[in-house]
């Protein structure tokens, strides 16, 4: 049986998915350009030479132009690969060669480096459904990034990529949920 917090999260995720689906092509294109500029600015400001970043799915903020910039500018990128045991492996990739992984999400093609490969990155960029003003992240419900972030002894800065209207006053929280250090939206980079 799901807890009341789980039910609230599920309803909020449904609403947020619908909002993303209703964005026009023009709104998506404008947001992609702005996300890219802000992700580049964040990476540059952190002097990050090794970044962990997700490959965006269809209705997520588009990370691909940023990943193309990273590849062209010598920023090494690790991509998450979902495992059936609930952990993430990591792989090098070019940001454009991909397969459909577990749950129908895009994943990089590459030799898995193991879950601890992320320990050597300078910056982690994660997807999110929403983030609140304290930095609490609500993901899409599988817990992969929460497990990864919660298991790291020395975690580099973690930024979630969300649309402006997904920065909320508060998000429902469960014991396993992990906060982020900041968010990247089309209009700003916010550090908590």
Mind telling me the CATH class? Alpha Beta
N-to-C SSE series? HHEHEEEEEEEHEEEE
Percent of residues in helical segments? 25-40%
| End-to-end separation | 34 Å
Low-confidence stretches: none
Task: Tell me the structural class.
Answer: alpha/beta
State the CATH superfamily name. NagB/RpiA/CoA transferase-like
Tally of structural domains: 1
The percentage of residues in β strands lies in: 15-25%
Average pLDDT taken over every residue = 87
- The Cα radius of gyration reads 16 Å
Number of helices: 4
Query: What is the CATH topology?
Result: Rossmann fold
Sheet of most strands:
7 strands, mixed
Backbone shape: globular
Reported CATH architecture:
3-Layer(aba) Sandwich
Give the total of beta strands.
12
Organism: Subtercola lobariae
Pfam families: 5-FTHF_cyc-lig
Catalytic activity: (6S)-5-formyl-5,6,7,8-tetrahydrofolate + ATP = (6R)-5,10-methenyltetrahydrofolate + ADP + phosphate
Protein name: 5-formyltetrahydrofolate cyclo-ligase
Short description:
The chain has 192 residues and is of the alpha/beta class.
Per-chain topology:
Elements: H1 4-21, H2 25-45, E1 50-53, H3 64-72, E2 76-82, E3 88-92, E4 98-100, E5 106-108, E6 123-127, E7 130-132, E8 137-138, H4 144-151, E9 158-161, E10 167-168, E11 182-184, E12 189-191
Parallel strand pairs: 1-2, 1-6, 6-9, 7-10, 9-11
Antiparallel strand pairs: 2-3, 4-5, 7-8, 11-12
Helix pairs in contact: 2-3
């Amino acid at each position: 049986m799901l807890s009341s917090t789980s039910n609230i999260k599920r309803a909020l995720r449904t609403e947020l998915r619908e909002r993303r689906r209703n964005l026009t092509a023009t709104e998506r294109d404008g947001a992609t350009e702005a996300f890219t500029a802000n992700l580049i600015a964040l990476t540059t400001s952190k002097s990050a030479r090794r970044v962990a970043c997700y490959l965006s799915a269809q209705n997520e903020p588009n990370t691909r132009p940023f990943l193309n910039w990273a590849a062209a500018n010598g920023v090494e990128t690790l991509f998450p690969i979902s495992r059936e045991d609930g952990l993430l492996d990591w792989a090098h990739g070019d940001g454009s060669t991909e397969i459909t992984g577990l749950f129908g999400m895009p994943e990089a093609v590459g030799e898995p480096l193991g879950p601890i490969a992320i320990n050597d990155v300078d910056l982690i960029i994660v997807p999110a459904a929403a983030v609140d003003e304290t930095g609490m992240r609500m993901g899409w419900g599988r817990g992969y990034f929460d497990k990864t972030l919660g298991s790291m002894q020395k975690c580099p800065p973690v930024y979630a990529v969300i649309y402006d209207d997904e920065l909320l006053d508060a998000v429902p929280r469960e014991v396993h949920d992990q906060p982020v250090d900041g968010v990247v939206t089309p209009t700003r980079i916010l550090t908590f």
